[in-house]
Amino acid sequence: MMTYQNDLDATPFLSTRLRRMTRVLALLLCAVILAPSAHAQDQQKPAPPASTPDEGPATDNGGLIIKKKKEPTEPEAPPAPAQEKIKNPDNATYSLRVDVPIVNLGVNVMLDKTHQFVPGLKAGNFLVLEDGVEQQVTSVRTVQTPITAVMLLEFAANSYYLIRDMQNASQVFYRSLRPDDYIAVITYDLKTHILTDFTNNKETVGQALQTLTIPGFSDTNMFDALYETLDRVSRIEGRKYIILIGSGRDTFSRLTLDKILAKVKATPNVTIFSIGTGALINELRDASGRMGGIQRLDTLQAENQLKTFASMTGGLYFNPLFQGALPDIFAQINDSVRNQYLLTYKPTNPKNDGTYRKIKVILVDREGKPLKMADEKGKPLKYSIVARDGYNAKRTVE
Known about the structure:
The chain has 398 residues and is of the alpha/beta class. It is built from 8 helices and 16 strands.
């Protein structure tokens, strides 16, 4: 009986353990059943279609996303300029200017008879008076000035040799021109022809000379051409020069020799330099006996006329036999017309009052007496001093 009673007491304990085990097994069974179902749902989702090489890469067909446009921004303002550094305080501006007056005076010294330039003068030979007060000349140097000249050329159908000599002489003079020279080219035969008016364009002068190829008339009206040229240059201020290149013969002019000589004498500030043509051919004809008495007289008269025109105006006359003498001839002419003394001094009156100061230049020797000149034979030579008679002083700069 005791044994049976113990078995009955153990029965409720076993029943409780069985219930707990049953619950655990039920939970495990549910977990096993639900897991395959979730895996199956994942497998049922459609996979994206695989792309082929012909179709290109796969793209998303969803909606197009447009980014919001940025609002335009105003350009940045340029940086402010650097502030100027002012050395003076309070932005005050001060200036200092010192004017030391210096006068540069151009002086020409020429012999009255030949109008040749007198070289070799020193600072001690120049006495400069400004308003009657002697000035101290600090420097003297020789400079070359531009010229205003007319090339008056005989161009007629009388002789090939005369034309060739004229062309050679005019070309040598043309090559000696400088940029500041003003030159006019005039030719004459029966009439006077202006090839170019006064110009400082050397190319224009050269082109005018190149047209001298085929002459027109054989007559040479030199007196008429020279009269017209003198009348033309008399309207120009300053000193002018006429380079007369020709045979010197006059065949059919309306004017006589006396009238043209009176015109030459009455025309101021004009110097004539004469260059004869045909000297070589005349010498050959005379040496061979082909020049008769009348022709010889005509040649001598023509040469004398050219020489007279030059001597009356203080110029020079040349009659070259050969072309090789032309460079030396025009070098001598250039020395006569271009050279000038440039004097520099500080005026004793330093006021900048704008007044006119009168100037007078005198040549003196070492003892301060008027300078005397003489030729190789001891004969006195008269000379002229060409300089401006005054200048206006500067005004004070406020």
